[in-house]
Amino acid sequence: MFTFILRRTLQAVPITVIVTMIVFIVMQMTPGNPMSTLINPDAPPEEIVRRERQLGLDRPLYVQYLAWLREVIRGNLGHSTKGGRRVSEMIWSRLGPTLLLAGTAIAVSFLVGVPIGVLSAVRRYSALDYALTVFAFFGLSVPNFFFAIGLIYVFAVQLDWLPAMGLATIASGYTGWALVVDHLRHLVLPAAVLSLSTLATVVRFTRSAMLEVLAADYIRTADAKGLHPRVVVYRHALLNALIPIVTVLGLLLPFLFSGSFIVEAIFAWPGLGQLGVQAIFSRDYPVVMAINLFAALSVLAGSLIADVLYAVVDPRIRYE
Amino acid sequence: MSSQAVRVALAIAVSLSVLGASAPGLAGPSAPQRGGIVRFGTAFEPARLNPTLYPSPADRQVTELVYNRLLKPDYNMRLVTDLAESYEISPDKLVITFKLRRGVRWHDGTPFTARDVAFTFRSLAHPNYAGGQVAFASAIRGARAYRERRASDVEGIRVLDDHTIQFTLEEVHGPALANFTHPIIPAHILGPVDPAQWDRHPTNVDRPVGTGPFKIVRVAVQQFVELEANPDYFGGRPNIDRFIWVLGDEAALLSSLLAGRIDAMAVPVTEARTVRNQRQLDIKEMKANTFFYMGFNMAHPLFRQKRVRQAFAHAIDRDEICRSALQGYCQVVQVPMAAPMWSFNPDAKGYAYDPPRARRILEELGWQVNPSTGIREKDGQRLQFEMVYSTPIMATYAPLIQQDLRAVGIGIDLVRLDWPTMVATKLLPRTGGQPRAPTAQELQTWLLFRALLLEPLGELHYGCDQQPPKGFNFTQYCNRQVDRLLKMQLGTMDLSERAAIYKRIMAILADDIPWIPLYSSVDLYGYNRRLQNFEPGVNGVTQNVTQWWIRR
Q: What does the pLDDT read at residue B19?
């Protein structure tokens, strides 16, 4: 197992380099550069060119990439070209909110989604199953932004129960429990929106995996020898149905780190997703590169964790 | 050409605006109360808090609370003293001497002196400085030599004593006084730092040190910028204790305004009714210092023909744009200038909406409608052009323009681009890294706006010698008479004389029509009625912020 993890980690190095190289090239091919958004008549084009030279944007592409790579290896992600802030500091300050929001959404999806999926499979074609299926398709098909605006309209504007934006009440002076409650109140709406689609995915995957397993011979055997239905469903069926569910978890993990662009933007949630969108629009190369590096690493980590979990849930899988 | 004095932000952002005709005293009978927090919503996040580094409108919203300048514009855009106590101009108009206020301190307690002023303007001309504000210093004698490393200092800046500073100009310069509206930065903090590194310095990132009415407490990126009242402010301590710029998506901010969680924000015209329907909210409606236009690239042989441009102008129903797309919050103008500017000409004759006349002009030029396409043709050439634009508001009326032009047989392909793409591929394309004027294939027509502060800066856009990379004449318009008049107004500091010359320039441009002026815009600020004395002005929305107060 250890050598497997080590080998996969080593494999990740060239993949990461290739991914960042592609991102770097695509980004540079996008029209405009960090200075394009700063154009104004006090800064006529020749002044802009002067600053580009200071930033090294006039150098050949490969020189710029190698310079970036060298600094990253030294642990330096550089400075934002938009405001001069340290990129590492920018990423670090957004990581907490993104982990909180996406983590809540993923936890809710699995804690609620797996039981619903099991229930739906066990009572296949019942009224309950149909109701849950309709709900799941609703979750999969309603766009995030639409659901978000609907929730804001109902709960923030009409009922005025929950805040519509931000991480906390600004300058509230809350401390201790009041502060925790304030954060939770701000978390409810964005987490609900973000959970909806992942929850629906988990429900559908769990249901189909369970249906397949429930049709297997050993389940019939377990039923026939008179085991309690709950034991059959949870011990015999669900454990075997977990593999596809673990795959979904592995796919969702990167989302923990990259955040949801749309949901974060709508709720003014100061996370990595929002940072990424703004960085792209302002052609803030160092920030875009850092976020992509982060996203690439989390995809690799997510699939590695999923592979390790396969071995945990399925004793037949062995890694040498 | 040394007159690139006051900046025009081309950035896509909320424009700074001017006080409208109405200025009701909403304060009521009660006297201002001290204390409280103002939460002001904004969709545009400040990025640079050092005002010498490419200030965007969003940056300026914050830096205007933190810094001061020698002179500042009042509600009528006339220059009044700020950090200066008084100033004197020599009879030959070449030497300007400022007496500075005494007893002013930087937020860290260090006394403010003439050395800070000298440092600020010298820095703008520093060889390593690349923050884009060099035009504010370039009229000073010796600034160019210093920038080109031919001199060790700027000859025309002289500190006479701690509270007196003298500037000598290269030549008589129309916008000379407007140049002294540049914010003053602290020499004791930034003096030892190489200007090339200023963007990474804490004074730019989150710890600016100024002399203004508010001090920065905290910059929470993508959340808020929190400021507290400066108790020692020379203009008097603000009534409110705290000012917080709340950052967020426009829709979310609007719901916060409706729910009373923020006190004010710039409201899009489409939401004006929603805000007006709330009893606790009201709207300040102001003529903004911004105008929108449609431009022609003169590199295209057809657009060099005045008659073709006239046909376009007669074909477009600008009143309809104003009425339907902007719900009436705008003023149709005949000249390419914002209505509140001193250089505006309200009497210039433009081209009325008259489609039959547009058709007649095109017929006379030999353009015949092809019945199968509805588009005019001549010698195998089609009257079909691209129109590029960028902002959401333009997206609401670009199709109206397309429809109007189509009705007279001109085909328009609408191309919406994000701003950096529009700059890099359309307005300022490059060859070998060097910006140049666009060809007729790259750019044909476009929609754009100009957000002005104090100076009209016409030469930058129409000057024959101002094609990129030198200036912004990507229109590639060149009219010797306009050129001469532009130079003439730069040669006098008498504002009424300059205004008279500008009115002539505007009359020529209205007739010659290199740009079709669309409208001068109106800004709307929604605010909660508990916020008192809220009077946004030319200097930005916080013009009289020290007098704001909260009724409890």
A: 34
Residues on chain B touching A261 (C-beta within 8 angstroms): none
Q: Which domain holds residue A177?
A: 91-269
For residue B523, which of B161, B53, B13 has the smallest C-alpha distance?
Answer: B13
A19: in domain: no
Please state, in angstroms and rounded to a whole number, the distance separating the CA atoms of residues B160 and B140: 16
**3-state secondary structure string across B285-322:** EEEEEEEEEEEECCCCHHHHCHHHHHHHHHHCCHHHHH
DSSP class of A216: S
How far away is chain B from the Cα of A254, in angstroms, using its nearest Cα?
Answer: 22
d(CA B83, CA B106): 12
Residue A61 lies in a domain: no
Residue, of A69 and A124, whose pLDDT is higher: A69
pTM here? 0.86
Structure tokens given for B32: 């201002």
Structure tokens at B26: 């909403």
Residue in A83, A170, A275 closest to B48 by CB = A83
Nearest to B344 by CA among B389, B288, B295: B288
Q: What is the pLDDT of residue A259?
A: 62
Closest residue by Cα to residue B135 from B97, B95, B172, B181: B181
Q: Write the CA distances from B33 to A189, B227, B239, B547, integer angstroms.
A: 36, 19, 7, 10
A261, two tokens: 């662009």
Say whether residue A154 is in contact with chain B using an 8 A CB cutoff.
no
Q: What ipTM was reported for this prediction? A: 0.81
Is A38 part of the contact surface with chain B (CB cutoff 8 Å)?
A: yes
Q: Any idea what the CATH number is for the domain that residue A124 is in?
A: 1.10.3720.10
A93 vs B105, higher pLDDT: B105
Residue B228 has pLDDT above 70, yes or no: yes
In a domain? residue A37? no
Query: Across the A/B interface, how many CB contacts are shorter than 8 Å?
Result: 186
Tally of domains within chain A: 1
pLDDT at residue B100 in the model: 98
Structure tokens at B41: 């919503």
Contact A165 B249 (CB under 8 A): yes
Would residue A320 count as lying in a domain?
Answer: no
* Whether residue B17 has pLDDT greater than 90: no
The reply to whether B48 touches chain A by the CB within 8 Å rule is yes
* Residues of chain B positioned with their CB less than 8 A from the CB of A79: 199-200
A251 in contact with B, Cβ within 8 Å: no
pLDDT above 60: residue B14: no
**Highest mean pLDDT range out of A161-165, A312-316, B160-164?**
B160-164
Distance between A76 CA and the closest CA of chain B, angstroms: 14
Q: Would you call B440 helix, strand, or coil by DSSP?
A: coil
Mean pLDDT of A47-73: 90
List the beta strands (DSSP E) in B61-206.
Answer: 71-73, 79-81, 84-89, 95-100, 157-161, 164-168
**What integer best gives the mean pLDDT of chain A?**
85
Instruction: Give per-residue pLDDT as tens, A178-228.
Output: 888 888 889 989 998 888 878 888 888 888 888 888 888 888 888 888 888
Gap from A231 CA to chain B (nearest CA, Å): 48
